[in-house]
Amino acid sequence: MASKNGYDRVPLVVSDSDEDAGMISYIQRKKNRQTGAHQKPLLVAGALIILVLLAVIAALCYVLVKRTALTGSTTKTPPSVTEHTQTIADFKANVITAKPTEDTRKQQTPNWKVTFGALGSESVMRLLDIDGDGLQDVVFGAAATADLASISTFDPKKSLKVFCEKTGRSYPCIGTLIGMRGYDGKVLWKIPTRAGSLLNNCEEFDLNLDGHIDCVIGGRSGTIEAIDVRNGKRLWEGSSRFFAKTWNFYHPMALPDFNNDGVKEILVMHGGNPNKDSDDHNRESGRLILLDGRTGKGMGIRSLEMPNSKESYQSPVLYTYGDGSQYILFGSGGETIPGDFMMISLPDYYRYVMGLSKDAIVPHTQGAYDQWPHLPRQPETGIIVIFTGVAKGVMVPPLMTDIDRDGTDDIVMSAYDGLVTLLDGRTMTSKWKAEFPGMESYSTPAPGYFNDDDVLDFMVHWSSGAWPTYNSSKKVILNGKDGSVIWQTDMKNFEMSSDLTIQTTEPNRDLYLYKTKGRGAHFYQDVTGEVHGVGVQRNISILPSGKTPGSTSQPYDEMVYKEFIKYHFQCNSGVDIKSEIFLMDRTTADTPIKILETVPKEYNYHPSISWESGIKNKSLNFCALMIPEDRTTSAIGDVDGDGTLDLLTLIGHTGQMVDEHYSYDQMLYETTIHKINLAPILKDPEARVPMKIQSKLPLARYHQEKDASLLQSLPLQQQQWLAYFGTKQNGHFKNKS
């Protein structure tokens, strides 16, 4: 929504709560019961009726006042959805506003959505109880639009404390971690963080030993912090002489309590210099860094650097062999840099970073560590190279599962240059490979039972082109037996999020939750970024309000405008790139169940005279088209305690604002969190959408099986893959016995 004065007047503030309607409905029911009780004295009944009428009038007045206070919104919200819109400026203090009460809800609550204006997010969604009411709540990270733009031009040699001071704020100031109550979307707290978080571990750590789970967040610009989610306070900010100010941190992993203080230690991958161009192959080595879980301070005399000066973007995972031997799995390389998939034993890693002898005893480790003698180990570090990429790296964390049920976990690894392979845990050799030439993926394969055999299958999606430009993508399910494609659908836009699965009580029959973007769209961008229309007529001479070719008072270069719209989506031009979320099992493979659809938004604003000045030209009205973006992985849980599953998902809208000469001015972001009850949608036949797919499976036979609306999910505690990196956030899928 645009204000009268343009972008500088955001935020939006919208509240369309159903609570008022519920109050009136309750009073009306009470009135009906009382007027029907003719046995009571007439005087009492009359008095009660008068009181009820007064209450109804008061409630209606309250509703009218609330509605007149609303700002206009062009988005229509279904009656079953409660909608709120906020900006980061709405938050005043880091205070928990919800406490456990006797009437804590444990019944299905309405769907809700909360929109944060001027806020962008790349963060995964995490669900855990943060207010002590026994129900799951929502935690995610974000960063303000203005900071996302400003930090890109900040001198990397200076500290972010200087950046915060220059903008009149205290450090930290760029990122924000937000906690929301799960059943109604109420913001419970917000915590400023160094920068925007990417991957948060809110499952494996109790860092202050208070008996409650804490979150360790990893993100951009050297962000690694521990958060006590029960009181909305930071426990520590990580520190080590091996940190680089501008590099990223990825998913923090729990290691044994090496120093015997009762708290697990933390392993993090540190890498990804944002100041390097894609064609600059002279990169700094990524680093595996050990942190003290209680304090966040670095442990040891050195970090483990990636061999051959290779960068790294992959979150490490801990692989456990049958005898208890544990190995750290990690990868190197990037979008344009080849790299390896490697492992190192936990004792070897600890000895190396601590500077201990190779026969030193490592606390809290067990096992023989004599596996895979045929694989060479690097003499100094003990690193074992399992796979070497040809032209690109290994960026996506693997998943571990005992797919053949031989008692040893196998490894599903995805390489960035179009390869998925299943590694046999006993031999560490490939059992099968699935290749997708000319395609790339940021997504971890999602495990689930799709066809009717007893072997786990995997959903992956690949984008055509080369980073950072893609022009199409495909989503596939691989047969766990041999890696062959058993289901596929094609799209015109790429996807970065990872998929989820819901385990059901039916043998070998799970539900996949996945996102698509641009399905059926008539507009798309090719690998050059040029906009194309398919089957539509697009008038490229449409000019923004207030601009006319040849105007002397408002000089205009028509060629500049035509070049601009050649590479930018335009308002009022029929752009129909939508984001969709689907739920599917094998019986609905060609008619998946649509959970959510998000369409583009138009944002009207007054352009700046120039991007340096910031002065608005209020005689001109421009429009920025905000395209839905799904770059984060959703989470599934039971946030209202009704015994059925809810989807919590983050949908972003992004657009580009320009000055009056069509030069880039700033990016426009909006982030919306949705809570959606899945059970009613599963039972709604109108939610099933015909989809063009490719499959060799006997779909006609599958259609005769029990309808998907009758499926029962396993209890929440038995679900394996309801969040990024798995429900336990450790990359491990426990196969059905």
TrEMBL record:
Principal location class: membrane
Start and end residues of each FAM234A/B beta-propeller domain: 112-504
Keyword Membrane: yes
Keywords, in A-Z order: Membrane, Transmembrane, Transmembrane helix
Gene Ontology cellular-component terms listed: membrane
Gene3D superfamilies found in the cross-reference section: YVTN repeat-like/Quinoprotein amine dehydrogenase
Short name of one Pfam family: Beta-prop_FAM234A_B
Transmembrane segments annotated in the record for this chain: 42-65
Compartment(s) of residence: Membrane
Protein name: Uncharacterized protein LOC111119104
Species, as recorded: Crassostrea virginica (Eastern oyster)
